[in-house]
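Re: the 244-residue chain
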Amino acid sequence: MTGSTDDATPGGVPPEPVIDLLDVTVVLGDRRVVDRVSLHVTEHRLGVIGANGSGKSTLARVIAGLVTATSGRVRVAGLDPAHDGRAARERIGFCFADPDAQIIMPTVREDVEFSLRRSGLDKAARAARVAQELERFGLSHLADAAAHRLSSGEKQLLALASTLVREPALVICDEPTTLLDLRNATEMAEVLYGLPEQLVIVSHDLALLERCERVIRLDDGLLTDDGAPGEVIDRYRHDMSRLR
């Protein structure tokens, strides 16, 4: 990773941002999508599970600053993401479930470079950073390819490259394997777990989350389980099987 490492760990990785939520509630219409969630996260990899409509994606967006909490306190690396927007965007990256939602520019190279438009880097530095990320994700040979004509797996990698080129300390991935076949999903898992950045992964793919240090579960907006991945996932599977 480029840039200053004055406050980095010995391996050059930025210090892990602490995620600190206190009684966070999000009300949309007449529904509490997130209901009084308190959470303190220092783990390197956090998994988030729950049924459709449980509030997990909304919670992820609150952490990223894409959704403003109706009430409660949100702090990520000491920042309020919804109100300290520019500073938070420098520290937090967000990958959407559908990469087409964040692919903006015509070509792969242009799309990655677009993320650096407000970085303050000169043209040569931006080009070098882009080349580094394309190489990192095996996209160098597609640099001038039409971004929207990539395969689903390549689009997911492009979305990651465009997010990580800004060098955030925290990356939030919402359903990163949902549009992928088994081979590409397996490859994406290896990519994600090879990242030095802190990760929050929201997913229905329970196998993907088994390698997290911690998994939380939401039900109807409430935080209902929190702990070691195997235990939380097993309880979730058991509860879901009883509803069949």
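The longest strand covers residues 31-41.
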